[in-house]
Amino acid sequence: MARRELVEDAAGTAAGIAFVTCGLQGGAGGAEAQPLRREVVVSGKRVRTVDTHAHCAVPEAMALMGLKVTGTPNLPDVLLMSNAADRLRAMDEQGIDVEALSINPYWYKADRDVAEKLVTIQNEKLAEACAANPERFVAFASVALQFPDLAAEQLEQGVKKYGLRGAAIGGSVNGEELSDAKYHPFWAKAEALGVLVFIHPQGAGIVSEAPGRFKGNGVLDNIIGNPLETTIALSHLIFEGTLDQFPGLKILAAHAGGYLPSYAGRSDQGCLTFPARCTRTLKKKPTEYIRQLYYDNIIFSPEGMRHLVAETGVGQVVMGTDFPYPWTKTSVDLILATPGLSDADRVAMLGGTAAKLLGIKS
Ligand SMILES: [Zn+2]
């Protein structure tokens, strides 16, 4: 009921949208109740929903860096794919049919041998997790981006040998921008393979470069620092001409692209206002590049979604949850509640666009 009210309040209408929750049938002989699985239906049709932003951890790989899985209580368990049952239960409750798993890079300072081994273990384990539940999981490959040639090989191997659907990378690499020419071999490979690259901020980015500014109450390192890292990363890819050089790239930005889409207009004005500071001629207006990138919908409000779609395009927004971090459990509802969308738009955002980008077959 609460879900229905959310849609009606925010969108003004619930036409064509319905929720079906099924799976609980009183079994004969006192059988235990099956967990509920929420099935999302739009225009009377079941929609396969895809979460493009879902974290997991591979302890065997982390051990190579002397790290252990940590987090808030209960979180470590849920991060492990050896414990897929809890994850599947949460997905079922939230109406998530498929998760695209990714691992935030923590290995960018590792030397080449360790990075090679670590990524191999991790991609093998990701592939195993997907194979154990092929209807529910796909995954982004890990790559050792500090060694761009190796990263390109690992991406190719990840896609061709392990069946992974793209790569997950940080918003910067040891203080260097993703637009730096040294990373061109990686971008060239991603473009050639036609796979999605998911950019997710990490603590080693802007937050570690200006740590004092993020101190104090309010988790500012995360709520401001993470979206800022993404904003900077995407801006360099635009303004340094990376997206001109590799026009076929498919890039998915975490957390709705940080602040970039929310203040897109300013990106077009900088070089008009200070032309002497712009030394590179781009093929398009900066905001046009914003409309070719992809964004998850971790933006929390229907109005935020409406603006994200207005600035980026209806085909550029996909669903994300940040699972298992409890930022939101209502990513599905947020899409259903976003004003101004057609049912076809909602179907695309809930899973259709992501399925195409990730090669998820129907
Ligand atoms: Zn995340």
Topology:
Layout: H1 2-11, E1 17-22, E2 37-42, E3 45-46, E4 50-55, H2 59-62, H3 75-79, H4 84-94, E5 98-102, H5 112-132, E6 137-139, E7 141-142, H6 148-160, E8 166-170, H7 184-193, E9 196-200, H8 206-209, H9 220-239, H10 242-245, E10 250-253, H11 264-273, H12 286-290, E11 294-296, H13 302-312, E12 317-318, H14 331-337, H15 343-358
Parallel strand pairs: 4-5, 5-6, 7-8, 8-9, 9-10, 10-11, 11-12
Antiparallel strand pairs: 1-2, 2-3
Helix pairs in contact: 1-14, 6-7
Bound molecules: zinc ion (ZN).
Describe the protein's architecture and organization:
The chain is 42% helix and 14% strand. The model is unreliable at 1-31 (pLDDT under 50). The chain has a single domain (49-358), classed as Alpha-Beta Barrel (TIM Barrel). It is built from 15 helices and 12 strands. With 362 residues, it is α/β, with parallel strands linked by helices. The strands form 3 sheets. A 6-stranded parallel beta sheet has the order 7-8-9-10-11-12. The chain has a 3-stranded antiparallel beta sheet with strand order 1-2-3, covered by helices on one side. The chain has a 3-stranded parallel beta sheet with strand order 4-5-6. The structure holds zinc ion.
